Amino acid sequence: MKKSEFWCGSESLDRAHRNLTQCQTMDENETITACTQWDYDRETYPETAVSQYNLMCGEEYWIQLTQSVLLFGYLAGSLISGLISDKFGRKPMIIISAWFYLLFSTLSAFSPSIACFCLFRFCTAFFAISLYNVSFTYCVEIV
User: Fold this and answer.
1) Residue 40: beta bridge partners?
2) Distance (Å, whole) CA 9 – CA 23
3) Given CA atoms 9, 14, 20, 25 in this order, what sign does their dihedral have?
4) In Å, how far are 3, 22, 40, 102, 140 from 48, measured between CA atoms?
C-alpha cells in the first residue's frame, strides 16, 4: 500500500517555514510547534481515508484498528447470530440482518469521523456474517 504524502500546512506560513518535519513546523519566530492542519498530495488519489480523517502524526494506529474491529465484528456475529436465530427464527433473523447490513454499510460510507467508521464497520461485519451464517443454516435445514 502506498503511503499518503502529506506535509504540514498553514495559511500563515510560507513554504520555507512549513516543513520542519511532516508533524512539526517552525513559525516566523523559529518556534517549533505541532501541526494542526495538513496538505496532501492529491495527484494519485483525490481523497483517501488518511486525508479524510487526518490519520497521521500518531494517529496511524486507526488504520489497523479498523481492520481489527471488522474481524471482531465477524467473531461477535458468528457467536451471537446462531443463538438469536434459534430463539426468534431463521427467517426474521435473515430479514433483520439484511436490513441492518444495508443500513450500517451505507452509514460507514458516510461516517463523519474515524471512531464512527469503526463502530459502523463492527456493525456491518456483525450483520454480514449473521446474514451468511443464518442463511446457510436455513438452506441446509430445508434440504
Assistant:
1) 6
2) 10
3) negative
4) 11, 18, 10, 23, 41
Phi-psi domain of 101 (left: phi exceeds 0; alpha: psi -120 through 50; beta: other): alpha
Please name the residue ranges forming H helices in the chain.
Answer: 15-18, 49-53, 61-88, 90-109, 114-142
Positive or negative torsion for Cα 22, 24, 26, 27: positive
Q: Which residue has the cell 441492518?
A: 100
Q: Which residue has the cell 500546512?
A: 9
Residue type, 10: S
As given in the structure block, the three cell numbers for residue 117 are 467508521
User: How do residues 42-99 score in pLDDT, each as one tens digit?
Assistant: 666 666 666 666 666 666 777 788 899 999 999 999 999 999 999 999 999 999 999 9
Cβ neighbourhood burial of 134 (10 Å; 0-12, 13-18, 19+): buried
> What is the Cα 134 distance to its own chain's centre?
26
Average of per-residue pLDDT across 93-117: 93
Instruction: Please name which of 81, 107, 79 lies closest in space to residue 94, comparing C-alpha atoms.
Output: 81
